[in-house]
Structures are given as C-alpha cells and as structure tokens.
Queue: 4 jobs
Job 1
Amino acid sequence: SNVPLAGSALFDEHGVIAECPPGIPQCQPMTGRIAEAGVPPATPLTGQTTIAFASTGDNPNSGVAIANPGTGTATITFQLLDTTGTTAGPSVTKTLAANNHTAFFINQLFPNLGSFFVGTVRITSDIPVVSTALLFEHDGQFSTFPVFPLQ
C-alpha cells in the first residue's frame, strides 16, 4: 500500500503490536505507557548496518524499519553477521516500492537462527533507503539503536 513516509512502522511480536512513528515511538498498552525512545532523522543510504538480536522466549529481539523515499522500487538485501564478522546464513532479499516502508524483526527475516543470536545485520540496496533499528524486550520495553553507514 502507499503509506506516506510520515506514517509509521508496525512490529508485531506474539500478538503485541508496537507502532514506531518518526520522532518519538512509544509503547502504550491500555494500562499506560511503558516505553519511549527518540528516532533521529535518517539519511538515505545504499549501505548501512546495525546491531541484531534474535531470540525466543524472554530474551530481546531487534527489528529494522526501512523506508524508500525514492521514485523507484528498491531491492534490499539483508545479511546477518555473527560477533566475529562471519556470515550467519544466507542473505535475504526484499523489494520495497517507491514511497513505502516496512519493518521486520530479525528473527522474522532469519527464522532459523535458533533460540538466541547476537551480531549485526548489513543492509544494502540498489537505491538509497533509510532505516532505523529498535530493540524490544519481552516485557514490552524498547529502545532505539543507531544505524551506521557502510563504507
């Protein structure tokens, strides 16, 4: 769908949905706000990387939100690396239409990681895209992670 870039990204983990709008995302269930984090403006890049956590149970999961501010469809490749810089499985490629955005948890992009993974995810695209990364705890708390340009 054509969602304006001023919209938001949604993460759905075990039936709990967290909305991540530009600016200050909040996790606010009916019982009240439990987390809030700032998301800085992002520069469109063809290569970027961020921290990756993936787990099952009560461990944290990280997610990435990607937006394509361009006029053409972006082909985006996600490559997972472990803490030694070794590739942790095959890369995943997704397409993203112009002026659209999407979001994924790391364990949704790479479902065969096992019960716990720590490393980085390298994001490359044929046209510049913007991204942000978030860490979600099992109790609903979350924080943002920086995204670094690839050289």
Job 2
Amino acid sequence: MNYALASWFISYLLNAFTWLFLEEVPHKFNVPRVGPDAPFTTRLQEGIRLMSSPRGIGWSHEPTHALRPSPHPSTTRTQFVVRQLFHALVYLSALSLIGSTYIQQQSCFKYGGPSAGDPMYGLTRRSLNVIAFGVCAVSLLSMLYCVVTATVVAFRMATPQECPPFFGSPVHSSTLRGFWGKTWHQLLRSVVSPYGRSLAGGVLRFQQGSIPYSLIQCYTAFFITGLLHEISDTMTRQPEDRTLGFGSSLTFFLLQPVGITIESVVIYIYQSQFRGGSKSWEKFVDFVWVASWLVWCGPIFIDAIVSSRLTDYEN
C-alpha cells in the first residue's frame, strides 16, 4: 500500500507542476472546456476526473497510438463487468499458482536472500526467476485494473469505452522501444513525457523528431520513472532497511534507454546494409534480444522490490 500511495502522490505532484508551468491543462474530448471562471465545484469535479485517469483516456493528452483499442461501442455494461471479473479471477489464479509453486520456494524472493541473478542459479533458473516475477507483476496489476474498471463501470462512473486493456499486445515486444512504449502499461507516460519534451525542445532547442530530441526525451523519461520507483522503494522499506538495495530501481530504469540506443543503432546499421522485407527469423531474433536484455537486467529491479519486502510472503 505504501508503494502505491508513494507512486500516486509523486505522480500527482509531477502532473501538477507540468500543468502549472510546462504545458496546457488537458481537456476532455467532445466536452466544453472548464475555464478558470467556472464555479469551484465544477472545476473540482473536472480535476478529480483528470486525476482519476492517469493514462488520459478521453482527454487531450491520451496516448492513442500506445494503447490497445477500447471495447467495441456495442459492448454493454453488463458484458464488460462480467468479462472483467472473469479476467480478474484468471489473473488471481495465475498469481496464486506461480506465487505458491515458485515464488515462495525460491530464496531470492525472500528478504535477505540472494540476488535473483546470483551466479548459483545459472541461466535457466535466472530466466525462470525473471519470468515468474514478470508474470506475477502483470497478473497483479491486471487483476487490480479489472476489479477497478468493473466497479466504476457497474456504478456508471465510466463507460466500457473509457477502459481499454491495461497492457498492450506482446506483438510489440520485438524491440525494447516497443516493449516499454506499447506492451507495458502506460500509467507514467503522461507524467514523464512533458519533462522530456520541455528539456529537449524548450531548454536545449532541439527540433522535434530529430535524433537528439528523441534521445533526450527517452533518457529523461526513464530517469524520472526510475526516480519515482526509487522513492517508492525507500518509503516502503523499514527504517533500518533504507540503504538496502538503494539505487537499484534507478539503475534498472537508466539501463533501459541505453538498451534502446544500442538497439536503434544496430537496427539502423542492419537496415542500411540489408534492405528488403522483414523475415520471420529476424522477428525471432528481435524477441530473443528483448528477452535476453530483460533476463540480464531484470534481477536488478527484482532485488529492489525484494528489499522492500513486497515479495516476502512470510512478512
């Protein structure tokens, strides 16, 4: 709970700074804008709606290109609620199964245990550690999202079309950029992106779409993401554990733009030398690359979570 509260609080502070000093306050699509002259209660309601949609669904800052399509307009509330609750049970089952049969059995997921990437595990078990952690993380977040969206739709606080899937399609995971930009959840995109745009375009005056602009935006976004997770880790840990695992989350997220940079250079060189349509074996190599990268650096983030006792069932 402390981890989630810390993440939400910091995200709201970053959004508040963005909308006060960096960019225009987002507005709802197909709805008259609420101006500064509107009644206080109206502006308060608009602010609550905006804060309740971290991905900006239905707002002017919605990353439409990064999200999976919303449910079809013909989807009724009853159909949506039933489907979301069913999916929540599926995710709960996966979480319970993997948690009881693997996570609880491995000492690397217990507070004070070895690293998830300890050499004693070897490549196979290291990979299993990362996969098990990833499946549990996806299952937990998806389950919570299904329950929340089923509730708000059932009580007519939102429509099914305002609740697109939480995670994107695995098809986009053939590159690190696609994995982080489309497959993984986009809760922090609207939080961190304005700072990258402001630094690259507003401060350093690079042209939008240029390579320096893209790199600065990417590195800034992951730096803020890592900092946010680092603060959440610290607030979750016991006072005597504050220095344990310190810097792990920030290190993990700072490695991601490095991987994206390497990936972009390799793709550019390869495509400039070997022109032609994409081959199936190339796509396979792409997925192997992404999986290998996450297996290599994933234990860094896992260790940060474990040091916060978020995976220690006994505690």
Job 3
Amino acid sequence: MRLFLISWLAFTTITLIFSSSHPVDAFFVLGGSIQQEIYLAQLATQYPHIPILISSGSEDPCI
C-alpha cells in the first residue's frame, strides 16, 4: 500500500509540473455559485485572449 501511495504521489507531482509549463487554453468553470463566475470574469480581464467555458450557469436569481 505504501509503495502504491508513493508511486501515485510521484506520478501526480510529475504530471502537475509538466502541465503547468504549458500555456492555458481556456478557463473552465464547472457550475457552482455566482462567485466563481464573477471571479473568473475579473481574472479574464487580465487575459482577454483566453476563452471562458461555463458548464452550467448559476440558477436564477443568482445575485
């Protein structure tokens, strides 16, 4: 069990390091609350060339 955990942790760490060295293709929000959408809209002003994908928006009334 310990070997499995160490192997999984090493694989995950290497994958995260490799993935973080590539540019972002899009911002993706998996629904949730309006606060997530507002935060992403504010973040997107810094990166206007990156598209935004929202899987399902907040239900009405969201604000």
Job 4
Amino acid sequence: CSDLVSNGENGWICDEMTIDRFSSLLVGIVDTPQNRSAAGEAARESSRERFSIEKMLKNLKKMYLEVE
C-alpha cells in the first residue's frame, strides 16, 4: 500500500488497525475538507502518471519481450 499511497499527500494509511486509530483517522479526514480535496487531486495526478496508457504499453511490451 505504501508504494501507491503517500500518507497525508495522496491518501491516508492507517498504521495501527484498531477501532480507535481508524476512527480517529476518519474523523481527521472528514474534519479537513481542504486536505481531503488536495489529497484527492494528488491521488488523481499520481494515478495518471503511474498508470498512463503509454507506461502500461511500455511495461506490457517489456514483459512480452522477457517471455519471448
């Protein structure tokens, strides 16, 4: 997960899977709409960069050539 999400930048990672920690994280997200909006935009941009059609085709070609 941490290779796709930068905690607090383009999403949030719950570092401790307890009800208290998870609910605290959710409250923080809900209470800060500006951070939520910025993280959403950063996540969209990150997805566009990481998973562009050009990169996907390049990686697919590379995998195909390795099998060949």
